[in-house]
């Protein structure tokens, strides 16, 4: 019971960094019922709210962006290095995914912004940080079970 509560209450800090423009980052810091919620930044300036949703039986992994009364969404393509991950293969485990491509994010952002760094940075791959692990909390075990810490 304690570990379940710790996983639900524990904040997350999943950082995705644009490979083309490292000043473009997505920080997912809040767990919602069906998604992870965070913000997209350019040089530490908030550009909007960002959500990621894991795949289910009906849909692939999805992203959505909100700013004021504007909302965009699309599909997330996930990779391990240069190999595409999907749930019907058994070569790559979900927690090994380390790159993401947010389909049409740059195109949709171009409707509301002409910030060339934002558009270039969101058009390519994002490196998925070590603490993301598919949105799950990494558990670190120490010498005995009494010293279990949730990271």
List keywords for this structure.
single chain; 151 residues; mainly beta; 8-stranded antiparallel barrel; two-stranded antiparallel sheet; 3 helices; 14% helix; disordered N terminus
Description:
With 151 residues, the protein is mainly beta. The protein has one domain (2-150). 14% of the residues lie in helices and 40% in strands. It is built from three helices and eleven strands, in the order H-E-E-E-E-E-E-E-E-H-H-E-E-E. The chain has helices spanning 2-9, 105-109, 116-123, and strands at 14-18, 24-31, 36-42, 45-53, 62-67, 70-80, 83-85, 99-102, 125-128, 139-140, 149-150. The protein has an eight-stranded antiparallel beta barrel. The chain has a two-stranded antiparallel ribbon with strand order 10-11. A hairpin with a 5-residue loop joins strand 1 and strand 2 (24-31). It is globular, with a radius of gyration of 16 Å. The two termini are 17 Å apart. Residues 1-7 and 137-151 have low confidence and may be disordered.
């Amino acid at each position: 019971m304690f570990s379940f509560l710790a996983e639900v209450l524990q904040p997350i800090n999943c950082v995705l960094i644009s490979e083309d423009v490292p000043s473009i980052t997505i920080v997912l810091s809040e767990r919602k019922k069906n998604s992870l919620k965070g913000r997209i930044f350019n040089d530490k300036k908030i550009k909007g709210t960002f959500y990621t949703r894991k795949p289910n039986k009906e849909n692939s992994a999805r992203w959505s962006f909100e700013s004021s009364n504007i909302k965009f969404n699309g599909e997330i393509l996930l990779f391990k290095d240069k190999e595409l991950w999907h749930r019907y293969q058994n070569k790559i485990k979900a927690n090994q995914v380390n790159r993401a491509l947010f389909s049409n994010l740059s195109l949709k952002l171009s409707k509301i912004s002409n910030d060339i760094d934002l558009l270039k940075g969101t058009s390519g791959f994002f490196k998925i940080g070590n603490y993301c692990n598919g949105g799950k909390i990494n558990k670190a075990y120490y010498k005995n079970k009494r010293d279990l810490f949730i990271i």
